[in-house]
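Ticket 4471: requesting a sanity check on a complex prediction with pyridoxal-5'-phosphate. Repro inputs:
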Amino acid sequence: MPDKLALAHVPTPIWRSAALDALVGTEVWIKRDDMTSGAESGNKIRKLEYLLAAAVDDGADTVITCGAAQSNHARATALVCATLGFKSLLFLRTPDPGNPPPLTGNLLLDKMAGADVRFITPAEYAQRADVMEAARAELLQEGRLAYIIPEGGSNGLGALGYVDAMREVRDYLDAGYAGGPVSFDAVVHACGSGGTAAGAVLGAARWKISDKVVAVAVCDDRNYFEPVIERIMNESRGLDPSLTSTAELVIEDRFKGPAYGVATDEQLRFIVEVTKRSGLVLDPVYTGKALFALAGIEKKPRRALFIHTGGLPGLLAQPDALARALED
Ligand SMILES: *Cc1c(COP(=O)(O)O)cnc(C)c1O
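Returned structure tokens:
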């Protein structure tokens, strides 16, 4: 098995709220991966435990990655790199790099962590693997060794973090902490780059958590994600041959809203309602859309394990949208 650093505060609790069950219309057991750490919290730190172990093994001094301007993955990477003593170089997508986005939310934290932030256009971002490889080659000229992490930390190595998360759920249930179920009718989570889905599909089967994983797409669609997730799963199996079985993967792509990072008014009001009724804070980019989907699908799993993958800084970068939802 690949090396792994201990970065996340685990096991994360499984949390319930009767008011939330009523709002969503089914039993929702929330795996609080928004509590995997402090400001670096969320699902990405589980992937970084493997990815940064590989960077250490390589003898790298710099970590290069990419994402949207408000990428949770980039922020988690920048913060953990600061802790571990890596320099970080982030290629962030923005419509007009000459007119960069405000320093709020994740982006503010990236800069505070000392990341070298370089904005690139969506067209350049489409070539991100080449962009990152060119930066790595340039650093090598200066005698620096960089380790490249793909978008979202989503490759076979990073996805092992979510196989481990499913094992953690198994141990948690077996210890009786959740006080009831031994498994779930579905694991439900937001899907942006596919690594969480790949790990959950393999881990849910391996650790008998559920026969089904519902990945709620927040961008792209089923046709895009199916081969992406399949490729990541194959890579993971190459690293851990014990991952022979898979849960059924359902890619739910009807709830992504107007665009990546943009929620509908109804979704924003839902996020506010969840917080009002239960104290749980979702985010408008990922988790809000995913739980909104669970509340909206026709055939709901009777008992769902919802992975709260984090994303609070992304919410804090959208105060106007949330303020609008508070008004009506
Ligand atoms: C990145 C992210 C996701 C999606 O995970 P992927 O593995 O990229 O599909 C979900 N929720 C939050 C808050 C994220 O930051």
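Notes from triage: The pocket of pyridoxal-5'-phosphate is lined by residues 42-44, 72-73, 152, 154, 190-197, 283, 286-287, 309-311 (CB under 6 Å). Leaving this open until the requester confirms.
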